[in-house]
Amino acid sequence: MKKLLKKSVDIAIIGAGPGGLGAAIKAREAGAKDVVLIERSEEIGGVLPQCIHNGFGLHYFKEELTGPGYIHNLAKKAEKVGLDVMTHTMVIGLNKEKVLTAATKNSIMEIHAKSIILGMGCRERARGSIRLPGDRPAGVFTAGTAQRLINIEGNLPGRKVVILGSGDIGMIMARRLKLEGAEIVCLLEMMPFIGGLIRNEVQCLRDFNIPVYTSHTITDIIGRERVEGIKFAKIDKDRKPIPGSERKVECDTLLLSVGLIPENELSIMAGVEINPLTGGPLVDENWQTSVPGIFAGGNVVHVHDLADYVTESSEQAALKALQYAEGNVFEGKRKKVIAGHNVRYVVPNGITGNNPVDIYLRVSWPAKNVVISVGEIYKKKFDYVRPSEQIRLSIPGEKLKKLDKDLVVSCEGEEEIFN
Amino acid sequence: MENTECIYDVIIIGAGIAGASVARELSKYELKVALLEKEADVCFGATKGTHSIVHCGIPGNRHTPLRNRGEIIGNLMMEQLCSELDVPFQRIGKMVVAFNEKELGELKKVEEKSRRNGVIDLETITDQARIKRMEPNISDDVIAVLYTKNTAVSSPWGLVIGLCENAVANGVELFVNTCVQKITVDKEQHFTVQTNKGCFKTNYVVNAAGIYADNVAGLIGDDSFIISGTRQQRMIMDKKCKGIVEHLVRYLDKGSPTGDFICPTVYDDLIVGSKVEETEYKGDVATTREGLEEWLVPHCLRLVPILGPSNCIKPFAGFIPKAMGENATGDYWIKPFPKHPRFINMVLGSSGFSASPAMAEYVALEILPYVGLKLREKKDFNPIRKDIPHINEISNKKIAELINKDPRYGRVICRCETVSEGEIVEAIKRGATTRDGIKFRTRAGMGRCQGGFCGPRVLKILSRELNKPLSEITRKGEGSIEAPYKTKDLLNGTKESRQ
User: Fold this and answer.
1) Among positive and negative, which fits the CA dihedral B362, B368, B370, B375?
2) Cα angle for residues A279, A283, A383 (degrees, 5° grid)
3) Quick one: CA torsion of A131, A136, A140, A144, rounded to 10 degrees?
4) Which residues make Cβ contacts (< 8 Å) with residue A237, sequence separation at least 6?
5) pLDDT value at residue A329
6) Model-level pTM greater than 0.90?
């Protein structure tokens, strides 16, 4: 892939992670001539180059790969189609007219694109946004930042670690640090259930004997210059610490795995409407945002379970972005798709009913023997659903033919009760 | 490093807002001045925890004439000072609110006191429609406000850094990581200031050590005051809240216009404060669950209902020192130590940032000459200091010019605040050796992701530019190493034996 500076393009893709990279390859494979892929980091791959654990590519490549391995495979595909990537290039401005401002070592440039794909992915929720009280010493990191420090820079954040949050990245870092000889004092999770995939619960926590406390949160961080300890307590149904349950442990590092938020600064700059439930852009069945010609794929829309799905959804966005660049404006009145009972969010948020569509959702609370219904037009049964597992419903064309009102997606069943 | 042969005219202890202001003031005169700072960088003490408000003289309930006067004059001087030093400054005005008739009565009393203190651009507004036009998002329950035009906002660390850079450019010597351990006086009233980095001999000392001013004063036998003070918890709200309030809006607190507030900053974010309380030990800047969730959040919502807690990107706390003692009134303690009058104590406190330009002149031009210091104006004093160029603030054309000179200005390291590698390297050239030093000079790490993306990259740049391994780079000086071990260190027992 040769580096490229251009002024005017058909499709500009922001972010060369598993989403953006997949989108760019697909666009080229489908015949797009002028595609530019813009990446702020030194290398392509998004967050995957630092994900040295395996579990990537099972669906997309039918192989079990590490993060770097997955990107390596995509890079080979990119090579085949001749793809131009601009690394070390940060998009610092974006507007409704689809003009990007990008800063690189060589210049600051304006890129005019016929269509744009947002592939900026997510960022981690930081200590401040959960208002974790206490001192503010060195030694508090989000889990992904710690992962970059270890796997890319080769430095360990500490030797005696507490982890807050049982999202996938928290669990993976528990194992990673243990393998490096650190002591994992405990992993704390506010909810009564583990937040990430079962696979990680087993392979990272249980297999490595990490002490786990659900329904617990941190009440204090101690240490002036560097973390010296934390206090944690059990919480009640209102998420308030239960008096008397507070304990103190010594540690020198606190990792936070408390949520991912779509990186939507550029989206907001461009006037794209944001879905308050996901933090990402509202999109329709074509992955198009509220700004015509600006599409979005991957984690910037909603947090996917697997990089494989990120690539797949971004590929779909790419095909639509290409059609738009070629003059197709995707007419059709859209009906809303709304999150109903026990559904945290749904994507897409508006559909015409003219085409079969995949609806993605996550539930808010674990439940068994459920029926998920999409308005009155579609139903599906599940034995067990949990927030950590993204659900995809493939709605066939005939069910959508008589679409005449907004669709509420609900999940009815036996919701788990935890003591 | 022994300096006993070379005698300084003035040694200033502490490079916070007080010490830095005096240093810059003294740099206008033919004097040999040293500024000593015990932390790894300037502004690493109380000043960095302050909010950025430049008050305009509306007094609180206590009798603090030095502070009240200082605020008015400081507010008038600050704009020109910030302009000379290329530090952000913005006049936004202030509204103290009343929710009921009783509070309206209190507002009227505050207005009277303010006029007596010299505040002129002041009015009590009871026209609720007008209040809503000025601040559309303020609570509907506000029935009146005391409005004043001159309240402004600036940048506490920006000003301290600007003052220090200009002072140094004009001849002041700055020593960081330099902690005063002992002070002796000889027969000629020369002080010998012993530090961990050597001895300094001087004719005059200005004790601007903030939270530790009593410890420093104790070294010379001055026990006339101790430092107490309060911890003040605050929250920074996301930049996307820009415009939710345009003025500093503030509650009354028992009739004093010093209640909780919401205020825009010069950086487009908002600051919500303050939970004020005494703490077990001075300098405690921990935030607490009660302070944030049970005090700040509900008070914020009551005043501006749409400003919800999910907008918070960083809660923090500052410690505002105050000199207390038998003869202390709670006002600033700025006076010579009677036994050794050439040792000047300079403890500011609440509104210290606002009053600092006036207090610096008071120390440099009144007190020091009164106890013997001769001032001869420097003919080549240069008042102008230029900040590091920030690509976040300039046009694309200017960014292109910068990139032409140094391509690193095109490489963005901090996404949230759009900070380039060029700025970070320049910050290191100007004295930053820690991650916080970079943060205060460039804003890298102050945005909504709070350093999640830029953090490792900033550490790497520091490591490269300072020629130190990444495992030695600190957050804010000794004791705060960020990533202390290399991979495999723990397994190989390279650093310390495994537990």
Assistant:
1) negative
2) 80
3) 50
4) none
5) 87
6) yes
